[in-house]
Write a structure and sequence with these properties.
This protein has about 300 residues and is of the alpha/beta class. It contains 12 helices and 7 strands. Strands 3-2-1-4-5-7-6 form a 7-stranded mixed β-sheet.
Length: about 300
Amino acid sequence: MMRQLSLFENTEKITNVMSVPLRSPFRYPGGKTWLVPRIRQWLTRGYAYSVGKAEFIEPFVGGGIVSLTVAFEQLADRVTMLEIDSEVAAVWQTLLKGSDRAWLAQRISTFNISPDAVNSVLDAVPVDLKEKAFQTILKNRVNRGGILAAGAGKIKRGEKNKGLESRWYPETLKRRILNIEQICDRLTFIAGDGMEFLRKNARISNAVFFIDPPYTAAGKKAGSRLYTHWELDHEELFRISRTLSGDFLMTYDNVKEVRQLADKFGLDTETVPMKNTHHAKMTELLIGRNLDWVRSR
């Protein structure tokens, strides 16, 4: 079912990410804010809609903008998120526990950011999970591109020469964190391996899966720079995805090797336009069993 599209065949207007409610405290490399309109379309008009408001599962949740959107907009009854990275997991675990969530919001809003204060936090060994969550959010906000992987450098000049303060919006972060209380009853977080979860839960029939793995197929090296857990058997992920009883939507780099994998496993593909963090126009690849709902717009 794979359609061979040229890079610029899809002339659809690129999503203005500022038109999408920003709900995550992360600024995550590879984040999917730009894809939110497509997620809404998939869950309200695509095949996924035929199963009703079921469970939405995201096995590589990262910054979580898609899962948060689904929960806030009640596009599914339940949302299950998984993340193997212990730093990112610490944030989600803290956000879903009332007292710890309030502590994190207050810690962020009262933190006086400076090079010495940042270094003091980032050099310390966290004493508990919520301290690890604060350390992770701080690192995510002061590192270039929000990169958490070892070796990432800190922002130097930043926006308007604000340096480390460029991406530190304490009141905004506090509000986003406290707002999660509204949807806690619909959210479940699991600190674990998304691939293994998919293997063990492939037969869940009333669930839909949004699969956004680290983009390291075709020997792409950026993943090792962006993510701590970047190694992935992409062919195995495709094999597992094909066995899922529920509908699924995958996102990947629009590269030949990924399109070949989709073709090998009999999956449908469609390109969607987006801009990367450097505002360059490019396309990414949607993959599923049937993407006619994408082309019907």
